[in-house]
Amino acid sequence: MQNEEFFMQRCIELASKAMGCASPNPMVGSVIVYNNKIIGEGYHEKYGSHHAEVNAINSVKDMSLLSKSTLYVNLEPCAHFGKTPPCSDLLIKNKIPEVVIGCVDTFSEVSGKGIERMRSIGIDVKVGVLENESRELNKRFFTFHEKKRPYIILKWAESKDGFIAPKNQTKPFWMTSSESKKLVHKWRAEEDAILVGRITAEKDNPSLTVREIEGSNPIRILIDKDLKLSADFNLFNNDAKTIIFNQIKSEKNNSNNYIKINFNDLTKNILQELHKQNIQSIIIEGGRNTLQSFIDKKLWDEARIFTTNKTLTEGVKPPAIEGEIISEDETGGDRFKILYV
After folding, report:
1. How confident is the model at residue 317, as a pLDDT?
2. CA 166, CA 315: separation in Å to the nearest integer?
3. Which of 23, 33, 51, 55 minimizes the C-alpha distance to 42?
4. Which terminus of the chain has a smaller tally of CB atoms within 10 A, N or C?
5. How far is residue 225's CA from residue 229's CA, in Å, rounded to a whole number?
6. How far, in Å, are 134, 154, 217 from residue 231 at the CA level?
7. At what angle do helices 266-276 and 288-296 cross, to 10 degrees?
8. Catalytic site residue 53?
9. Which phi and psi (to 5°) does residue 15 adopt?
10. Which helix (H) or strand (E) holds 157?
């Protein structure tokens, strides 16, 4: 059992290298073990490329060993034709006798079918090694398919005396250190999208890109009910795609996609639309009202909250939230904690 967990942990380490690159596919790593030694390994590097099992098999130097080896993978091998053929068929074709899986893929087109197919021809399939860790790695993917909405991360920074913005703010205001800013940009690169409301966009004129690090920009989401923001705001430049939820029009204009939406039960309607757009994860970086609207509907999975050394004396209070603190850390003099719902 200890060895099984060791090899599955390696699968998870490999899979996590694709953070921010695999979506809308899950992150998957695979290792092939012969006589208790890894003879091949690989991971799904980016959407549209070879799956982890393919890369692991292709890395094996002596292919004759496959028929005597165990393949480990953190997620059930697929059983359907997508951009690539089914991985379960590949394992059958290569006569791999034993497969150890971290967790079942609950996506309806897979969901047990890969396991069933392999078992039907006599492959010894074991499921559930480091199952919790395997599900945690792909929490975005599982939330999207099981709850029919993106994985939702709330994020804000507050002063040490408990305010998230100055009173009567008239110009852009950055609460945290430059090191924290880089960390936030890294987080942005790991998610599909990032959302703000009109008032935040108006006051801060954010770009919502990952310019401080190397990585892909998330899709920018703006809530602007009556389309009050002028086109010269940073959110409308061509650095990234922007979706503008409004009640006036639906049209595409360069990198900007205007989507008309019903503003009654707005949070629910936004999440339904993002699910249609195949957006699996989103960071909410809006102001207090936007953040609180998701909290009040219990439509959030994780909150990342910075506390800085700045003192504001008066200003806008942070949202009211309750959750389980998963971790606490420090960067650039700022403390931050991560909460799960």
Report:
1. 95
2. 4
3. 55
4. N
5. 10
6. 43, 27, 20
7. 80
8. yes
9. -60, -40
10. strand 151-158
Question: What is the side-by-side strand order in the sheet with 281-284?
Answer: 251-253, 256-260, 242-246, 219-223, 193-197, 281-284, 151-158, 302-307, 334-340, 324-331
- Catalytic choice (13, 45, 53, 109): 53
User: How does pLDDT run across 326-339, given as a tens digit for each residue?
Assistant: 999 999 999 999 99
Main-chain phi, psi angles of 182, to 5 degrees: -65, -40
Q: How many helices (H) and strands (E) does the chain have?
A: 10, 17
DSSP 234: G
Whether the model clears a pTM of 0.70, i.e. scores above it, the answer is yes
Cβ neighbours around 322 below 10 Å, total:
8
Q: What is the DSSP letter of 55?
A: H
Q: In the predicted model, what is the mean pLDDT of residues 52-62?
A: 97
Q: Quote the DSSP letter at residue 290.
A: H
At position 129, the amino acid (one-letter code) is V
pLDDT per position as a tens digit, 182-211: 999 999 999 999 999 999 999 999 999 999
- Would you state the pLDDT for residue 312? 94
- DSSP string over 167-192: TT--S----S-HHHHHHHHHHHHTSS
Classified as helix, coil or strand, 124 is strand
User: pLDDT tens across 144-159, in order?
Assistant: 999 999 999 999 999 9
Provide the mean pLDDT of the chain. 94
Q: Give residue for tokens 């890395």.
A: 59
pLDDT at 84 (0 to 100): 67
Query: Which residue matches tokens 């509907």?
Result: 297
Pairing mode, strands 302-307 and 165-166: unpaired
Residue 257 phi, psi dihedral angles, 5° rounding: -120, 105
How far is it, in rounded angstroms, from Cα 318 to Cα 201? 17
Find out whether 292 and 319 touch, Cβ atoms under 8 Å: yes
